[in-house]
Amino acid sequence: MKKEIEELTLLLLYLTSWKEEDLPETMRRSWKGYSFEALNQLIEQDYLRGSNKAKSIYLTKGGVEQAKQLIKKYLGEIKNESE
After folding, report:
1. I need a surface site. Which of 15, 16, 19, 24 has the fewest CB within 10 A?
2. What pLDDT does residue 77 have?
3. 3 state DSSP class of 18
4. How far apart are CA 7 and CA 24, in angstroms?
5. Which pLDDT score is estimated for 37?
6. CA distance 71 to 81
7. CA 81 to chain CA mean position, Å
């Protein structure tokens, strides 16, 4: 069950994320109102990055790619998926 919680947390972070375009490269950012245990595990897997004090977190390129795989796993193929 722990693995599924981590996967669904990453999926929700991605689905509720927005693009930060005023940084050197476009990044996806999301509010981190989820289990700290799951967030810490995703940070250890290098899917997320950010400060412990911040209320939001950045998804790494690996995190975005993993989230897209999780969309297929949990939601099936979605046509016209927005980046």
Report:
1. 24
2. 72
3. strand
4. 28
5. 94
6. 10
7. 16
Strand order in the sheet with 18-20: 18-20, 27-31, 56-59, 48-49
Tell me the pLDDT tens digit for each residue of 23-65.
667 789 999 999 999 999 999 999 999 888 899 999 999 999 9
What is the per-residue burial (b if ≥16 Cβ within 10 Å, else e) of 20-52? eeeeeeebbbbebebeeebbebbbeeebbebee
Q: What is the DSSP string of 42-73?
A: HHHTTSEE--SS-SEEEEPHHHHHHHHHHHHH
Residue 37's SS3 state is: helix
Residue keyed to tokens 């016209």: 80
Q: Which domains does the chain have, with CATH numbers?
A: 2-75 (1.10.10.10)
The pair phi, psi for residue 12, each rounded to 5°, is -65, -40
pLDDT of 13 > 80? The answer is yes
